[in-house]
Amino acid sequence: MTTAPAAPLRHAIDPGRDTSGLPSLSVIVLTMLALALPILLTPIPLLIDLPSHIARFHVEATIAHNPALAANFTYQWRFIPNLGIDLIVAPLAGLIGVENAARIAVAAIPALGGLGMLLIGAALHGRLTAGALLALSLNYAYPLTFGFVNACLAVSLALVVFGLWLHFGNTGRTRARLVLAAVSAPVILTAHIIGFGVLGLLAGGAAMAERRADWRHPVRFTIGVVRPMLAFAWPLAFLLLWQTGEAPPNSEWFAWAQIARWLVGVLRDRWMPIDIASALLLYAAAALAVALAVIGRPRVAIEWRGAVPAAILWMAVILLPGRMFGSEFASVRLIPVALSISLLAVRERRGEARTLLAVALGFLGLRLALTTASLATASAQAERELAVLPMIPPGARVAAMSIVPCAREWAPPRLSHIQSYATTRRDAFANGQFSAVAGQALGLTSRIDPVLGELLSTGTVERCDRFFPSTPLHETLAGLPWRGVDYLWLIDARDIAVPLPAGARLIWRSDRSRLYQIRPPR
Asked: Is 66 inside a domain boundary?
């Protein structure tokens, strides 16, 4: 039996508007399938960091009975708030293989994000809005293209939990809310700490909106907001198990240039004019809807339980550091979720819904088609590069570097970690496995020289500041511990001349890449 909504929620829900229902099962299934297909249909979903994640999954799954891997790697399970995809792939890898398991797990990220957005929109407005359809395109925002798969999974789960949390509030199920918060919070924290933070900001902002009638009574307002948040906060004790004192301090405060780049590139993929125009359309839609709602135009309404969390997320984008808890680009990763909640917070008048829904659906279809085409192009490129792998024997030590230009290109550097497939498919070591990051489960044996273990997977021909002050390629290669290197793999290097040790010989080349044998195989 459904109980009446709690008193504070009556102030957050428009009278006469039913927000107790959930989206239909057919809408949910079709949406999740449409969002998952671009990755499911791609043989090698070349998200930038994903190959290194897959290599780690492979080491974890096979190192116990694989001497070639054990010669170069160590693996020790430990709690870190960055295990989302790892925990999904681990039980699946033995059944369908690591690469297939990873593809399915990663395809679940946009699918779950879409589910969460549908739930949030239904809880806020009681129906599908044009803003919700526009927001669905942000499930393929730049953080996923970058390969931040654990963080993206955690954010998608946070959206699902927030949608259910709102729904339980609409129907007055306070106890169900508390149970949902208490059970989901440690799961999302384990998936990635950024998702846990997003969940707290979303729920906290909604709690503030629900208690907005008490804003003039600070004590009553604070108690009303804090009380429901305690069920989300208890897993913070888990962080005591994680903090090792090795993580670098938070840094990159108020990095305005970085924030501006990520704002413009929120949908960055392959086609710069279309991607920027798409982003501007989303910003314009959110800003125009909010402006019309603020000035009281009847065509658009705004829901406080969406608007307040969105405003808090935008403040977090500006006020939080770019590097936090050892994660790069921590604050700017929040841009897509802040924009999606901004779009979900508004609704159009029913009389105009059909036209706006058709336009929004067309936009979503266009973005999914472009994403599918881009992933397919990158997968074909990866297949050509990976033709080198039969030349690399198991257990070999490979120094690999993908050459990127100093000038920023719009298309993401998708080959940045392609060398990790030497680990996944040939049981070899290749640099760029994030093994030097504090607290990681993956480590290296003494057979791997520390200089090789910390070698970046990307390089530039000359010194430049694209990501950081880079060392020119010839200086990097001159400083390599060649006694501990069996092969040198230069990716996208074309015909660039490089210094090589005596006895090195070219054994494979394509129109873009080369493989040198440094030491004869044993």
From this structure: no
